[in-house]
C-alpha cells in the first residue's frame, strides 16, 4: 500500500486539529457560560443578602432600643413586682402600660406587637389593632423558651411567632405573621418570679429587607438555627422546615447574628434558555470560522510546502555530514525564508565551530609541549644561580653571594608552589627577602617597618599581594636622595583584612594618583609600571569578588596604598 505524501498528511492533520479544537472550544464555552451564569446569580444574591443583613439588623436594633427604653421605665418594674394596692390600681397601671406600648408602636412601624408578661401568666399586650390584659396559661414548651431567655439575659431570644399557638391573650402578638423577641427584665432562678418583655416584628417588614433578591421566578426565605422558615417570599411556607427543591440553585448566606440564614432558590430552567441560545449562536459562529480556516489552510499549505521541502532537503544533507549547503531562493514568506536562512547560517557556524575545535586541539597539544619545556626552566635557573654564587664566594665577593641567596629565596616559592593562598607568615617571609634585596640596593637609605600581630600569622592570605604594592613605592615614589621609609600595617576587623602600605615621597602627584586609581577601578593597564597593581586587583577579585579593593591616596608627604578584602 502506497504511503500518503506528507503534504496530504499535513492537510488532513490541519482539518483534524481544527475539528478537535471546534469540539473542545464548544464544550468549554458551553460549560464556562453555564457556570458563569450560576456564579453571577450567586454573586448578585450575595450582594443583595449583604444589604438585607444590614437592613434586618437595623430593624432588630431599633426594636431592642425601644425595649431598653421601656425597661428603664418604672411601669415595667411595678408590673413585674405586682406593686399595686388593689384591682383599681392594677387597672390604672395596665392603662399606663398600654399607652406606653402604643407610643412605641407609633414610633417604630417595624413592630407589630409589644407585651410584658410575668412568669405567673399576668400579661399586658398592645398590637397595631388591639390592646389586651389579663391572665394567660404558660405551658411547658413556652416556659422553656422563657427559661432560655432568662439564661441569655440581657440578650433577646428570637423565636418564630408560631410558638405562642392559640393561648388566649398572648396569641394576639402573633395574629399577623411575626418574629418574636423575648427578654427577661430581671434575672431570677425561677420563671414564675421573673417578668418578660416581648416584641413582635412584622414578617412583612422582615421580608422587605431581602425581597429584592427575588427575580425571574426565584424565591427567598429566612431560616432560624433549627432550619425553620420564619419569613418567606413564597406563600404557605411559614414555620415549615426548609427542604431544598430539585432543579434549583441554592444560594445560602449565613447572617452574623441570631444564627439565622438567608436562602435563595433559583430554578435552573430560568437560565437554561439563555444557555441554549448562547450555545446555538456559538456553535454557528465556531462552525463558520472552522470552515473558513480549513479553506484558507488548504490554499496556503501549498505555498508553505515549497520552503519546508527545501528545509527538509538541507537537513537531510546535514544528516549525511554534508555541511556545504546553498542558501535557497526566497519565496516571499518571511517566516519560512528567515527559517531557511537561519538554518543555513547555523550550519555554517557549526562548520566554523568544528574547524575551531580542531584548531584548539592542535593548540592544546602545543601548549602541553610548552608546559613540559617550562618545567625544565626552573631547574636550569636554580643551577645557574648556584654556580654564580659559588663563583662569587671563590672571589670573596660576599655581597653578590648574599644577593644571589636572597634572589633564590624569592623565586623558589614562585616556581614551586602553584597555590593561590598561603599563611601570612609565608607572605611576610617572602616580603622580608624582597626588602633584603632592596636594602642591598639602597645601601642603608631604606627604612622598613612591619606591624602585624602574631595571632594573624596562621591566617590564610593571598600570595604575592604586598610585594607589587611595595615595588610600586620604589617605582613611583623615590626621593631625589634615594632615601625612603616604608611602613606596612596588617590588621583584621570583623572578618575583613585591612592593609596599609605607607611610604615617604618628596612630592606627591595628585593627578597621577587619580589616574592610577581609575586604572585600578576598571582594571585597565596603561603601561608596564602598572602591571603589578593591576595583577593584584585581578587576583583579589578572582578570590573574593566584589568584597575587595585596592586604592592609593596622599596624606601629606606620604603615599598610602590601602588593600581591603573580606574572607
UniProtKB/TrEMBL annotation:
Domain HAMP: 302-355
Residues spanning the membrane: 12-33, 281-300
Gene Ontology MF term list: ATP binding; phosphorelay sensor kinase activity
Principal location listed in the UniProt entry: membrane
Uppermost EC category: transferase
InterPro entries: Bact_2-comp_sensor_kinase, HAMP_dom, HATPase_C_sf, Sig_transdc_His_kin_internal
Record-level GO cellular component terms: plasma membrane
UniProt-listed Enzyme Commission number(s): 2.7.13.3
SUPFAM superfamilies per the UniProt record, alphabetical: ATPase domain of HSP90 chaperone/DNA topoisomerase II/histidine kinase (SSF55874)
Key word Transmembrane helix present: yes
Cell compartment(s), UniProt: Cell membrane
Coiled coil (UniProt feature): 350-377
Domain of life: Bacteria
Pfam family, one: His_kinase
Protein name: Putative sensor-like histidine kinase
Species in which this protein is naturally found: Eisenbergiella tayi
Amino acid at each position: 500500500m502506497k504511503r500518503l505524501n506528507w503534504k496530504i498528511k499535513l492537510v488532513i492533520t490541519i482539518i483534524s486539529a481544527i475539528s478537535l479544537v471546534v469540539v473542545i472550544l464548544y464544550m468549554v464555552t458551553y460549560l464556562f457560560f453555564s457556570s458563569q451564569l450560576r456564579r453571577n446569580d450567586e454573586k448578585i444574591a450575595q450582594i443583595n443578602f449583604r444589604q438585607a443583613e444590614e437592613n434586618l439588623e437595623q430593624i432588630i436594633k431599633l426594636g431592642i432600643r425601644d425595649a431598653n427604653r421601656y425597661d428603664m421605665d418604672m411601669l415595667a418594674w411595678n408590673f413585674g413586682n405586682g406593686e399595686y394596692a388593689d384591682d383599681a390600681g392594677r387597672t390604672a397601671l395596665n392603662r399606663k402600660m398600654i399607652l406606653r406600648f402604643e407610643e412605641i408602636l407609633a414610633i417604630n412601624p417595624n413592630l407589630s406587637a409589644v407585651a410584658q408578661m410575668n412568669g405567673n401568666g399576668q400579661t399586658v399586650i398592645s398590637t397595631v389593632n388591639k390592646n389586651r390584659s389579663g391572665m394567660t396559661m404558660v405551658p411547658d414548651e413556652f416556659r422553656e423558651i422563657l427559661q432560655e431567655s432568662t439564661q441569655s439575659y440581657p440578650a433577646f431570644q428570637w423565636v418564630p411567632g408560631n410558638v405562642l399557638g392559640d393561648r388566649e391573650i398572648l396569641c394576639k402578638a402573633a395574629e399577623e405573621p411575626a418574629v418574636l423577641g423575648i427578654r427577661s427584665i430581671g434575672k431570677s432562678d425561677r420563671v414564675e418570679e421573673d417578668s418578660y418583655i416581648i416584641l413582635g416584628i412584622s414578617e412583612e417588614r422582615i421580608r422587605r429587607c431581602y425581597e429584592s433578591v427575588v427575580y425571574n421566578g426565584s424565591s427567598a426565605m429566612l431560616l432560624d438555627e433549627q432550619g425553620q422558615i420564619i419569613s418567606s417570599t413564597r406563600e404557605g411556607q411559614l414555620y415549615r422546615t426548609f427542604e431544598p427543591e430539585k432543579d434549583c440553585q441554592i444560594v445560602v448566606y449565613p447572617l452574623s447574628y441570631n444564627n439565622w440564614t438567608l436562602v435563595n432558590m433559583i430554578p435552573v430552567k430560568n437560565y437554561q434558555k439563555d444557555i441554549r441560545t448562547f450555545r446555538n449562536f456559538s456553535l454557528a459562529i465556531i462552525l463558520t470560522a472552522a470552515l473558513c480556516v480549513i479553506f484558507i489552510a488548504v490554499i496556503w499549505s501549498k505555498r508553505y510546502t515549497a520552503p519546508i521541502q527545501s528545509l527538509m532537503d538541507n537537513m537531510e544533507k546535514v544528516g549525511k555530514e554534508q555541511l556545504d549547503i546553498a542558501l535557497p531562493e526566497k519565496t516571499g514568506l518571511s517566516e519560512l525564508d528567515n527559517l531557511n536562512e537561519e538554518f543555513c547560517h547555523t550550519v555554517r557556524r557549526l562548520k566554523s565551530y568544528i574547524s575551531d575545535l580542531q584548531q584548539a586541539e592542535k593548540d592544546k597539544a602545543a601548549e602541553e609541549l610548552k608546559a613540559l619545556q617550562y618545567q625544565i626552566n626552573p631547574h636550569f635557573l636554580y643551577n645557574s644561580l648556584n654556580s654564580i654564587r659559588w663563583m662569587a664566594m671563590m672571589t670573596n665577593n660576599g655581597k653578590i653571594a648574599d644577593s644571589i641567596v636572597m634572589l633564590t629565596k624569592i623565586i623558589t616559592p614562585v616556581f614551586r608552589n602553584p597555590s593561590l593562598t598561603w599563611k601570612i607568615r609565608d607572605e611576610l617571609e617572602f616580603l622580608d627577602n624582597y626588602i633584603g634585596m632592596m636594602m642591598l640596593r639602597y645601601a642603608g637609605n631604606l627604612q622598613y617597618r612591619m606591624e602585624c600581630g602574631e595571632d594573624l600569622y596562621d591566617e590564610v592570605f593571598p600570595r604575592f599581594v604586598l610585594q607589587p604594592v611595595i615595588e610600586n613605592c620604589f617605582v613611583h615614589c623615590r626621593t631625589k636622595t634615594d632615601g625612603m621609609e616604608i611602613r606596612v600595617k596588617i590588621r583584621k576587623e570583623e572578618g575583613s583584612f585591612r592593609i596599609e602600605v605607607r611610604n615617604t615621597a618628596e612630592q606627591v602627584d595628585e593627578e597621577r594618583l587619580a589616574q592610577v586609581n581609575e586604572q585600578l577601578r576598571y582594571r585597565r593597564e596603561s603601561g608596564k609600571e602598572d602591571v603589578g597593581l593591576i595583577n593584584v586587583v585581578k587576583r583579589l577579585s578572582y578570590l573574593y569578588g566584589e568584597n575587595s579593593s585596592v586604592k592609593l591616596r596622599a596624606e601629606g608627604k606620604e603615599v598610602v596604598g590601602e588593600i581591603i578584602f573580606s574572607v
